[in-house]
Each structure stands twice: as structure tokens, then as C-alpha cells.
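Database export, one record per block. Field names are fixed; values are copied verbatim from the stored entry.
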Amino acid sequence: MNAEELRAVQAPLKAEYKEHPEAARVLARAEGSLDPKDIAIVVDAWHGKVTAGLHKAGGGSGELACSADMLLESLIGCAGVTFRAVATAMGVTVRGGKVIAEGVWDARGTLGVDRSVPVGLTEIKLRFEVDCDADRTKLERMIQTTERYCVILQTLKSPPQVSLEIA
């Protein structure tokens, strides 16, 4: 897809969303089934099922998916697609590359060893290793634009209101 094709695909959507803002509200949904025999959940992923369980640092075997890794996978998926859309819109040829996310969490918080230690990822680094025809200045602008429009990155930077309920 080139810049012209991208604009052609997005133009009617943008017009619709300007005229009918409520049409732009998209419901994202995920579901999983609790494993009755293990400390795990089977997540209905996009093209199959993924079983998530305890990380080795929390007492797991290390054989099941780690939820923190899954979060980072979501981040790189969104950042990578957003970067490619930005590159396309800017007419930049991307020959290849990688998007890498690394996060740090402290198991003492999760295991209740030390209540002063936060539970969850406390640091995330996102790195772009890109082979493209953009100079450094343009590449930096592309990364800034990616940051601005990446749904998952913006969700992590400005967390949404989250509620829990029992059905």
C-alpha cells in the first residue's frame, strides 16, 4: 500500500467520524477461560488460543505464556503497525527492521514479599531498529508521530479508568 492508497482508504472513515463521532468509538474485547486444573487461563487470541500462567519468578514452570510478555507483544504489534502507516503516509520506504519492547517488573511486589514494591511493570523501553530511506531527522519525526497515534502506547502512558465486576 502506498500513501495515496492509504489516504483513499482512510478518507471516508475520517469523514464519517467527523460527521458522526459516535461511529468512531470501537469496542475492544478479550476473553479467556479459567483452567480448572492449573493456575492458568486460556486466552482466545486472534488466531488461536494462548495459555497464560505463572511466570517462573512467581512460581510457574516457565512453559506457559507470561502476561507481561503478552502486554509487550501487544505494544510492539500496535507500534509496528502504526510506524508502518506513518512511514507509508510520509512516503518512506521501509526495507525491514524490528520493534523491540523490554519491561521490568519486581516479583517481590506480585508475591507480597515487600508491600512497598509496586506490582506490575514499572519500566518499559521501546526500541525501533529500522532499515529505511529516511534520514535521522525524518526518522525521529516518524517515531514521534508513531508515539502520538499508537493506541497501546498511549493507553500505557495515560492509563484508562479500569473497573472490576463480578457477574
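Remark 1: DSSP finds five helices and five strands in the chain.
Remark 2: The longest helix spans residues 67-89.
End of record.
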